[in-house]
């Protein structure tokens, strides 16, 4: 007998935990009688989900990370399968995290409706996962318009809901007011530094970002820098990496205030990931930087089918933002690009116009509400 008022959600990464919390909030607004349980993080728990395991705390970004966590993730996987088969929720809602979630969908064999919110990037990795999705997923809820067409062409039920970042990336203060709170002058040039949200990312990328900032400072000693730190990463890790730069950079470090940092800045150096879209939505020019384990990079290079890794460039269909990946992540080159953007008004304005076009393609505000409505409509049909 299905538990008609319970939804089982799975989010395996910090960004998925955020999207899952937004979705739960929207679902409760549509139907307050719903109950939620599953795998997620602290944000989903704060919205009232009964948390079986904190899966985002085990988040892995490379194949080496996956191998190290494999036994624990496997244990969680099978305990969650057992729980779902015992409790029979009304539906399973998978959020991104395809390596785990598509296997989970396979195990369900469509015994319970499976809705997938935030599509796997099959347009980047090849279409081999489409067959699995068509066989084991009831409906896709996608963020990008081009994904809707891709699934429609494949004969897969799909709903385009738009991107939830459109309504979450915002500030209540003007740029001038934000700068005053940060003890920055309105006339100063400010560069945001966003080195990622996971410990492994910060360890690999922050040194490159800081070296780039040093090179910028050598050309423009008056430039200021805002470093976005996250509470997901131990403060001591930032402090260890920052020690050599304390005297060479005009640097302000802020924890969990990424949007304020971006809205207060003139340009940014951003680790590849969700933060690149968040930066684009603030309409400031930026560059994308990324470094990962060489094993991950080598395998990814062989598998990825598209010329860009930054979603801004993928959505735009051409290079809007420069990408400095792996061996190309050279501080001198990164610094030169930022300086060129801030020194050349024509280049800066061209990038801003293209970012505005990308922003329009992400859809209007209200993506979590539209996703919640699509989920409830699917449940009513089943």
TrEMBL record:
Record-stated family: Belongs to the LpxB family.
UniProt keyword list: Glycosyltransferase, Lipid A biosynthesis, Lipid biosynthesis, Lipid metabolism, Transferase
Protein known as: Lipid-A-disaccharide synthase
EC numbers: 2.4.1.182
GO molecular function: lipid-A-disaccharide synthase activity; phospholipid binding
Keyword Lipid biosynthesis tagged: yes
Any one Pfam family match given in the protein's UniProt record, by short name: LpxB
Pathway(s) this gene product operates in, as recorded in its UniProt entry: Bacterial outer membrane biogenesis; LPS lipid A biosynthesis
Role: Condensation of UDP-2,3-diacylglucosamine and 2,3-diacylglucosamine-1-phosphate to form lipid A disaccharide, a precursor of lipid A, a phosphorylated glycolipid that anchors the lipopolysaccharide to the outer membrane of the cell.
Gene designation per UniProt: lpxB
Keyword Transferase assigned: yes
SUPFAM superfamilies: UDP-Glycosyltransferase/glycogen phosphorylase (SSF53756)
One annotated Gene Ontology cellular component of this protein: membrane
Organism: Candidatus Abzuiibacterium crystallinum
Catalytic activity entry: a lipid X + a UDP-2-N,3-O-bis[(3R)-3-hydroxyacyl]-alpha-D-glucosamine = a lipid A disaccharide + UDP + H(+)
GO biological process: lipid A biosynthetic process
PANTHER family tied to this protein: LIPID-A-DISACCHARIDE SYNTHASE, LIPID-A-DISACCHARIDE SYNTHASE, MITOCHONDRIAL-RELATED
Domain of life: Bacteria
InterPro entries documented for this protein: Glyco_trans_19
